[in-house]
Design goal:
Elements: E1 2-7, H1 14-28, E2 34-39, H2 45-52, E3 56-59, H3 66-83, E4 87-90, H4 93-102, E5 110-115, H5 124-128, H6 135-141, E6 144-147, H7 150-160, E7 168-169, H8 178-186, E8 209-214, H9 224-237, E9 244-249, H10 257-269, E10 277-281, H11 286-292, E11 295-298, H12 307-314, E12 319-322, H13 325-330, E13 338-340, H14 344-360, H15 364-371, H16 373-380, H17 383-395
Parallel strand pairs: 1-2, 1-4, 2-3, 4-5, 5-6, 6-7, 8-9, 8-11, 9-10, 11-12, 12-13
Helix pairs in contact: 1-17, 3-4, 8-11, 9-10, 9-14
Length: about 400
């Protein structure tokens, strides 16, 4: 089959990375399907090259405004006919709406919509043009819908009450690095190895554990400031001599700079900045960072899947994360990681427990996560399994 993915851009993002990883897996596994991509907004050239190595890539721009939208639909229809596309896979409902209109009476047999986040508007057309009325529901009825978690699906069904939003759960496939798990079992977890490429970094300190959280400072949903406050409580308890360092991996967002600045200022006021707490910014060496961490902590009030947490556990790290519906689902109610409420004191106690567990190696939290969870999680959320489910979806 000829399968076309439609993406907003090819810049770094959850949906883009998922598609890139799926195409890479399909290429390695010798998938019989032929994949191609249409992206709608100009992207960084190196990302275009990455996608281009695995599929045909075409830019069909779609700017704001009715004229631009109609132009995009016309160009997309021409592309569908030229490439003899049979399956269109979209990752945003608006893209799926345009794909539906563009594919009418063409070779397209099915349009798959994967819903990733909790910020989509499934009454978009009805709001824009009242005469369309229930156009959104009509098109949704003709789409094959998948969701990255039951939490995501149930959120939209509850919000809109549409039966047309019923769909299958297909967990995101995660690109696990085999060497991270191997290295995390071999490395001295109470310190560091001199041969590690990050061993000379300021935040890697002899005799101190290293914990971390990965995620850009671009949404209030991520609770980095709460985490800073929890560590601040521990700093007071240990009288300014924390037995671990903590790193935040993720860049400041220019539209919401206060999310980053508040954290930095809070740590500065508590004398933990660049002493026990470090902000590493955007990084392209997250894999290497995970191999030198001893534990992982992630705070959120509304993630739709929890990719960062899954990656950390798959790398062999004992993990503490927010006790929200999404993490209860993907971590099987705490079997693969320790769940804690979004309260600074509770979080502080959990981080201390994590530290004690790792150093004493007596508590079941450490043994359970390090011994079994990485292997279970790597199987549950493998790219191969995700690809197989999507390819079966295409054939239905």
């Amino acid at each position: 089959m000829n399968v076309l993915h439609i993406l907003g851009s090819l810049n770094i993002g959850g949906a883009e990375n998922l598609v890139l990883n799926l195409l890479e897996t399909a290429s390695k596994n010798g998938s019989p399907n032929r994949y191609s991509i249409v992206y709608m907004h100009p992207s960084k050239s190196n990302r275009v090259e990455l996608f281009g190595k695995l599929s045909d890539v075409s830019l069909i721009e779609c700017n704001k405004g009715l004229g631009s939208t109609l132009k995009f639909i016309k160009a997309l229809r021409k592309h569908i006919c030229k490439k003899n596309i049979e399956i269109i896979h979209c990752h945003n409902n608006i893209d799926a709406y345009w794909a539906y209109l563009a594919s009418f009476k063409t070779s397209v047999k099915k349009i798959v919509l994967t819903v990733h986040g909790l910020n989509l508007d499934f009454n978009f057309l009805g709001k824009k043009v009242k005469v369309f009325g229930n156009a959104d529901r009509f098109i949704l009825k003709h789409l094959s819908k998948t969701y990255v978690s039951a939490v995501t699906r149930d959120f939209y069904k509850s919000k809109y009450g549409y039966n047309e939003l019923e769909g299958e759960i297909i967990y995101n496939g995660v690109k696990f690095h085999p060497e991270t798990l191997t290295e995390n079992f071999i490395l001295n977890k109470a310190g560091y190895t001199k041969n590690h490429p990050l061993a000379n970094k300021e935040w890697v300190q002899p005799g101190k554990l290293a914990f971390g959280m990965v995620g850009n400072f671009n949404t209030p949903v991520r609770l980095q400031l709460l985490l800073c406050k929890a560590i601040g409580m521990l700093n007071e308890k240990y009288k300014g001599h924390l037995p671990f360092t903590f790193v935040f991996v993720g860049g400041m967002n220019t539209q919401n700079p206060e999310l980053y600045n508040q954290c930095v200022e809070y740590c500065k006021s508590n004398s933990t900045l660049n002493k026990d707490i470090f902000f590493l910014g955007s990084r392209n060496d997250v894999k290497e960072i995970l191999t030198i961490l001893n534990g992982y902590v992630y705070c959120s009030s509304g993630d739709s899947f929890g990719l960062s947490v899954i990656e950390a556990i798959g790398a062999g790290l004992p993990t503490v994360c927010s006790n929200i519906e999404t993490f209860r689902e993907v971590l099987d109610n705490g079997k693969y990681g320790y769940l804690v409420n979004n309260d600074a004191l509770e979080l502080s106690n959990a981080i201390e427990k994590l530290y004690i567990n790792i150093t004493n190696k007596k508590e079941p939290l450490l043994d359970g996560v390090l011994n079994m969870a990485p292997f279970i999680v790597r199987d549950l959320y493998s790219l191969e399994k995700c690809l197989c489910k999507f390819e079966a979806k295409y054939k239905e």
